[in-house]
Amino acid sequence: MNFMNFINFMNFKLILFSIVLILINSCEKDKTELPVLTTSQVTGITPVSAICGGVITGDEGSAITARGVCWSFNSKPTISDSKTMDGYGSGSYTSSVTGLSPGTTYFIRAYATNSGGTGYGNTISFTTQYSRVPVLTTSAVSNISYSGATCGGIITDTGNSQIIASGVCWNAMSDPTINDSKTTDGIPDGSFTSSITGLDPNMTYYVRAYATNGWGTGYGNDISFSTLINVTDIDGNVYSTIKIGDQVWMSENLRTTRFDDGSSITKVTDSDNWSHLTNTYFAYCSYNNSASNASIYGYLYTWAAVMKGAAGSNANPSGVQGICPLGWHIPGDAEWKQLEMFLGMSQSQADSTGERGTTEGGKLKEAGTVHWSNPNTGADNSSGFTALPGGNRLSNGLFNYLGSDGYWWSATGFGSLGAWSRSLNYGLSQVSRDNSGNTYGYSVRCIRDN
What we know:
Layout lengths: L2 H28 L5 E4 L10 E9 L7 E7 L9 E2 L7 E7 L7 E10 L2 E4 L3 E4 L7 E4 L5 E2 L3 E9 L7 E7 L9 E2 L8 E6 L7 E10 L2 E4 L3 E4 L4 E2 L5 E2 L1 E4 L2 E4 L15 E2 L3 H5 L7 E3 L5 H7 L2 E2 L1 H5 L20 E2 L3 H10 L4 H5 L2 E3 L3 H5 L27 E2 L5 E2 L4 E10 L3 E8 L5 E7 L9 E2 L2
Parallel strand pairs: 22-23
Antiparallel strand pairs: 1-2, 2-5, 3-4, 3-6, 6-7, 6-8, 9-11, 10-20, 11-14, 12-13, 12-15, 15-16, 15-17, 18-19, 20-21, 23-24, 25-32, 26-31, 27-28, 29-30, 30-31
């Protein structure tokens, strides 16, 4: 090779080398780094969803065209796995992760894509909550009557899912379900109370609480109870009944005109005649001698008529049938106290006289002002006793307090001329225990024999 050829060859190599350098520099200049980002903490974990996201701290000079989070069962999830798509741009963003399985561990990390490719944040693992139907217990059955009762439930575990319905269900066999008769008591806050209606008298039923969430219906324990029998007096009057604690009471005032053996009781309408009654006279009347009052409030009786001449008793049970139908008796003072203490009175309160207790009277009174005068303080009839303000008749024959007060005899005498009684007032939520002259006319409630 001569000298000129050598020079040309070297120039060619120099030119070629320059071109390569230019191409290499061009490639280096066009190369874009992947986005830089971190994965946010996982929050809001439920059985089927969670909340995550990311913070993009660097787009490396190229616009972010896609971002979100990706997850899988593997420790390095990519956008080829499940992912969210949460728009574009740098900064922070939040992702809603759905379609998960309960009680499952997942790996998740944020991602962001620019022209250079996809970058990923750090990997975080989390476990979805377990999900199941609610767990609950059935409350004791109370206020059992001939056609209804009160029950309810306590939810101890929602199953990690919102309660959407609750109540009690019942049938005449064991293990009732929501396909049987049921109440619907909305969305409770832990516990709920249900009013069961439409039952048949003298029937045994099975009841249990239920609660429904998004995964199904859970049930409480099975409880059986029997409805009461309507009681009929000698005149054919039918009375509803209510179980309160261990006692079964009539939930209406007595309105018979005869004793259970068919013998009659004297109806005394004239005030002067009433004022001359002796302590042993069997007499009754309706308030203001009105038949319509009798149909609502029952009759008013002298204590002698109530007892049918029997001596007073403070036993529990009193053992005095008196004016009551067979199988029923006049409640003694001790039985009234048992009722009051079941509703919340202390022994010392029950033993005292006058207005006693706190809310026990309200639990006995019929709610509202259809029969009671306004304001009918504290009345909610939560016992089911349904006390009405039938007023009274004084020993001088005058009628008093219809609509404002109710008075009831006990089987327990007080001295030779009186007996213990109970009264309720429209303006009070307590129960009054007093002794009254036995020629007063008071209402009567009978209580079932044990």
